[in-house]
Write a structure and sequence with these properties.
Elements: E1 2-3, H1 28-45, E2 53-54, E3 70-73, E4 77-80, H2 86-89, H3 94-103, E5 108-111, H4 124-127, E6 129-131, E7 136-140, H5 147-157, E8 160-164, E9 181-183, E10 187-190, H6 198-210, E11 214-217, H7 220-224, E12 231-234, E13 240-245, H8 246-251, H9 254-261, E14 265-269, H10 272-278
Parallel strand pairs: 1-2, 4-5, 7-8, 10-11, 13-14
Antiparallel strand pairs: 3-4, 6-7, 9-10, 12-13
Length: 292
């Protein structure tokens, strides 16, 4: 995770991210730091290992969302991705990639950054939601997710690509797949109703069910409150934990929480400034690392 230095509204990304709100919040950068620190404290209290890097540059409003420019795969690969906007491309840090390679199982580096010169973008585990067990990758098309590059990347890493289009209630493409889809080992949270094409919607549902995931169907309203932006992690006791925001937790029904509770402990975090101004939630703040 990256502790933000200059968190704020990112005008460069707002054209493609309808979740961002340009709100007047006093000392928003300090508010985001306090939310971040509280989240880290709660992670550690639940025996979830976390490595923190401090942001080193001013003027990077979205640096807290580290999962977009880098990803670590269980096949001992670390990937650097091409970002949609110039100020997000400036988030890429060689020192973090080197740290992952030194301290974790990352023997292969895949660098896709130069694809920006072809106007092709693919924003990490924002653009791609992985089913690591079955080696399937899911992506919804958007200005930040080039389908051709997505399929090429899947060919490189040996995953089966599945792409589709997902829309909000205003008919705008969902900017990142990980706000409408979360895949855990035994279940998946998905906003199927955002996939307007009935064939794509049914194929997505079948793909998820056939890979033995119990489906938790989200409404547009729940998606808008970040119920799809979660991440499953294992704590130091090897217990499954599903991480989400308080906003997301509060919008889930008791039945949905019950289904999750069969497999994972839900841990929620209060990050209202980061969610509203940044347009991303808990999943976006975490770059998952795989142990040996």
């Amino acid at each position: 995770m990256i502790r933000p230095l200059s968190f704020g509204f990112n005008a460069q990304t707002s054209d493609s991210n309808a979740f961002q709100q340009n709100l007047e919040i006093k000392n928003v950068s300090l508010a985001a730091q306090a939310e971040f620190d509280s989240m880290v404290e709660k992670l550690k209290a639940h025996s979830i290992a976390v490595k923190i890097f401090d942001d080193q540059k001013v003027g990077l409003p979205d640096s807290v969302f580290s999962n977009n420019w880098m990803a670590h795969l269980p096949e001992k690969k670390v990937v650097v991705f091409p970002m949609y906007t110039p100020n997000r491309r400036a988030e890429v840090r060689v020192d973090i990639i080197d740290w992952i390679a030194e301290h974790g199982p990352a023997s292969i580096k895949i660098d896709l950054v130069d694809r920006v010169y072809q106007n092709k973008f693919l924003e990490g585990t924002g653009s791609i939601v992985f089913d690591y067990q079955n080696k399937i990758a899911f992506a919804c098309e958007s200005p930040r997710t080039d389908v051709q590059l997505f399929e090429e990347f899947c060919s490189i890493i040996g995953y089966v690509p599945f792409s589709f289009q997902s829309f909000d209630l205003n008919g705008k493409l969902i900017y990142h797949t990980n706000v409408m889809l979360t895949i855990a080992n035994h279940y998946a949270l998905v906003c199927l109703e955002s996939v307007e094409n009935p064939i794509e919607r049914k194929m997505l549902e079948i793909k998820l069910r056939d890979s033995h995931h119990e489906l938790i169907l989200l409404t547009h309203q729940q998606m808008n409150l970040f119920a799809g932006n979660c991440i499953e992690v294992l704590n130091e006791k090897n217990e499954s934990c599903l991480l989400m925001s308080k906003t997301a937790f509060d919008t889930l029904t008791m039945e949905q929480k019950h289904v999750i509770g069969k497999y994972s402990q839900i841990i929620w975090f209060e990050i209202p400034s980061i969610e509203s101004i940044g347009g991303g939630s808990v999943r976006c703040m975490i770059t998952g690392l795989f142990a040996d």
